[in-house]
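#dry-run=false #mode=assembly
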Amino acid sequence: MQFQNSLTFAQKMDAEDKLHKYRNEFHFPQINGKDVIYFTGNSLGLQPKITQKYVDEIMIDWKELAVEGHFHAKKPWWDYHERLARPLAGIVGACVEEVSVMNALSVNLHLMMVSFYRPTKSRYKILCEEKAFPSDQYMLQSQVRFHGLDPNEAIVEVKKRSGEHHWRTEDIQAKIKELGNELALVLIGGVNYYNGQVFDMKTITQTGKSVGAYVGWDLAHAVGNIQLALHDWEVDFAAWCSYKYMNSGPGNASGVFINQKHLGKGNIPRFEGWWGTKKETRFLMKSTFEPIDTADAWQISNPPVLSLAPYLASLQLFEEVGMEALIDKRNKIVAYLEFILNEIDRQVEGNFEIITPSDRGCQLSVFLHGQGRPLFDYLMKNGVIADWREPNVIRLAPAPFYCSYEDMYRFGQILKDGILTKRT
Ligand SMILES: *Cc1c(COP(=O)(O)O)cnc(C)c1O
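#status=ok
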């Protein structure tokens, strides 16, 4: 498509965009009396307008029914989490029984490690990407120490090649093969939070399995952003948060995927609680745990219904629109943003470098070789909410649900003004 850096062109793109109307389904913060240009849907998605209704429903049921709400609320609380599994399974490419919603992301990764990191004397190594999201690094290190092992020895990081900004699949595969029988687990962020790279999860999963390792993915930046096929790729487990592209609200509940072949087993190592035991006998208060034969066996506590309500609201929107349409718009709007960045760079010699590789989702990470922090501060003051990462990177993620082509055009103008103003 031939893009143009003009308001008329951007508005024409919006007029032809089937998803454009969804912008109205979200609340935008205001700066200088105007809706912001919101690039941080990869950090905290905007609030859908229908969310309030979902939360109010719980508050009213609680007020009017109290404990009776567990079984007699409009959407009974005791199995409220089950409502989320079906729509989520569609989004992550799973069977419904392979998905559950509980806790928060890092907690769930720990719980998955209990089941899928079972080091032996000879097979104990974990492969991850260098500079993984800090929480994942702390999680891996503490798990390794918990087993009495040395993180420096047990955790192997795949590095980028010198002078490159992305990881190469062949380097990851080579490392997996090199570790071979020593490799217990591959655990990588499916979409890297820093450079926006989408890993070849299918190939990496296959390679990991070919040497007998378990393979898990942290999908914080992947879910609601890219096409996933966890079941078909034969991933062992995955976990994600819901407050980034999924728009479920700050710190909200996490989802997990556990491959069918690990379900229905009584003898798998797992930390257990009463919400993982069979529903039919749960309230008999027996002393033996009988695992539910779905991913819900990993549920420990009764579900945080007030958190799940906004997540359910958001899933309703995802179901209505579908990942295919979102991805279609994502590809176009990210390409348009890239075009705008290149145009402004050309016009005013901004000296930007897009470090996101072509395997990408919604995010472009831009290295500012020229002006850095002052330019970012200018953007923030002038109605653009973006994200700053040391040493000199801004991350721009135009979520296709609510960002418009006009936003991209206007962003370009603000960026250009910022560069010219800061230069004088
Ligand atoms: C956002 C993010 C997290 C956050 O974890 P929480 O437990 O929700 O605080 C973890 N890992 C990755 C890769 C992330 O991008």
